[in-house]
Write a structure and sequence with these properties.
single chain; 6-stranded mixed beta sheet; 5-stranded parallel beta sheet; 24 strands
């Protein structure tokens, strides 16, 4: 490629047709032109007084007016804005913006501001400032530094229109002024006003009250205490730790220990919580949702955090005795009550768990601590096959079996029948023909995302709701969090 490049310059003003990699290695660097393979380069240009103009002579353009035409600071726009590069980005980031390591240096646009100006403007580090002039505005976080002169602010040039917005785009503020002779644009200088950004009060509706919704509310309230937040939970008991449900079943933990929102925290976080209330419809055009009681709720921003449900085979017949899933408090309460109602001592009880994933293993370990006999049926050839390599899976299986938990690999449940005389006794036939007698069977095969609510709306989905890197759907005011 370099050889071809050299030949393309032949007989031009920058002729390097005499260069090659071998010459550069053997003889070191050279200044162009390098006209042939013995030419030593050109230490100084134009010693022959011949120039690249039609006449061969130097042409000087002397402007008639050298007065600076740039705008001057005023009471309306008191600050001088200059712009430029940062270390790890290039131009508009079409390539460098895709390199994660480069983005860790400075991930987003910013405004450099002198400490004295920051005091005058009542701005702190990381506050969002609005920078505006007659051409437009940007909205970026502030970096306070003495590296910038008082009365001058700096904005990097690399960020343009991203995800439908151009809050960090430097060209929003640059003028269309050009030098009358050279036509050089006045991109490096303009005058602006700077003020602290104050967001208009909004109403945020959240569908779902799981871990994702809880974390969002906590984080958001650290930044904003004024917006109205309304939460809709299909469950009677919102904001608890689902991962710890097995410990609740085994009574190692009380229900209060699973709660994420302790007493008084709903009031402290200033949220309007609707428990046991499902949302039936989303109208993204008129920006409202309708709950299962027929009530309409207007929103400015909507967050769908509906989480997931247990995946259950069609032939599980969960309405029949002894069949359970483990996804919410009602599931846990049903299993606890059922095991207690068998009338058997725990060491005589037997529970079969379908699925050797994290939930199945956690439940197995918790019930085993109560001395209940446990069998795990795993369809795959090893435990947690998506999370662990073969060696780790083998070590995990050995650890589980050492606890007295039986595991059947490469197997599935074929049929489940209850005893005619005692519906607390189940006969479970496996695909291999093995028959297990148990009191309960728990399906912990996996989960399926709850996104049926968006079907029939304009929100795009495939196997789940489609979002961008900000968890924003194709509808700008609607977001989706969680699984």
């Amino acid at each position: 490629i370099f050889d071809e490049h050299c030949q393309l310059t032949k007989n031009t003003n920058i002729d390097i047709s005499g260069l090659s990699y071998d010459r550069l290695i053997d003889e070191g660097s050279m200044q162009w032109p390098v006209l042939n393979s013995t030419h030593k380069g050109t230490p100084r240009l134009f010693t022959d007084r011949k120039f690249a103009t039609p006449s061969g002579k130097v042409n000087f353009n002397i402007p008639n007016n050298t007065e600076n035409q740039s705008a001057k600071p005023s009471s309306e726009y008191p600050y001088i804005l200059t712009n430029g590069r940062i270390r790890d980005q290039w131009h508009t980031r079409t390539k460098t913006g895709k390199v994660n390591r480069l983005n860790t240096h400075i991930p987003s646009p910013f405004l450099e501001l002198h400490p004295s100006d920051a005091i005058d403007l009542r701005l702190k580090d990381e506050d969002i400032a609005v920078i505006s002039n007659q051409y437009g505005e940007v909205r970026v976080k502030v970096t306070i530094t003495e590296n910038i002169k008082k009365g001058v602010v700096f904005l990097p040039i690399h960020w343009g229109k991203i995800l439908g917005s151009d809050f960090g785009r430097a060209n929003n503020l640059t003028s269309n002024l050009i030098d009358p002779v050279s036509k050089e644009p006045d991109y490096k200088y303009t005058v602006v006003s700077v003020k602290k950004f104050k967001k208009e009060k909004q109403k945020i509706c959240i569908i779902g009250a799981g871990a994702a919704a809880y974390r969002f509310i906590q984080t958001y309230r650290n930044h904003n205490t004024e917006d109205e937040i309304e939460v809709f939970s299909g469950e009677k008991h919102p904001f608890y730790n689902r991962v710890l449900l097995p410990e609740y079943v085994s009574e190692e933990l009380s229900w209060s220990q699973l709660l994420k929102m302790k007493e008084g925290e709903v009031e402290k976080l200033n949220i309007n919580l609707h428990s046991n209330t499902k949302i039936d419809k989303i109208n993204n055009t008129e920006k409202y949702i309708i709950d299962d009681k027929g009530k309409k709720h207007i929103f400015n921003k909507l967050i769908i955090a509906t989480g997931s449900r247990s995946f259950v085979p069609n032939d599980a017949y969960l309405h029949l005795p002894g069949r359970f899933t483990m996804r919410n408090k009602d599931d846990a309460d049903r299993l606890r009550g059922y095991l207690e109602s068998t009338g058997l001592p725990t060491n005589k009880q037997h529970t079969v768990i379908i699925g050797g994933g994290l939930l199945g293993l956690e439940l197995a370990a918790s019930l085993k601590k109560k001395d209940i006999n446990i069998t795990i049926i795993q369809r795959a050839s090893r435990l947690m096959e998506r999370q662990l390599d073969r060696v780790a899976s083998k070590l995990l299986a050995e650890n589980v079996q050492e606890k007295g938990i039986q595991i059947y690999f490469n197997n599935e449940v074929n049929t489940v029948f209850e005893d005619e005389n005692n519906d607390k006794n189940l006969s479970i036939t496996l695909k291999t023909g093995k028959v297990l007698n148990a009191n309960a069977i728990v399906y912990a095969i996996g989960t399926a995302p709850n996104f049926e609510i968006v079907k029939g709306s304009d929100i795009k989905y495939k196997r789940g709701i489609i979002v961008n890197q900000y968890l924003q759907t194709n509808i700008p005011d609607i977001f989706a969090l969680g699984e």
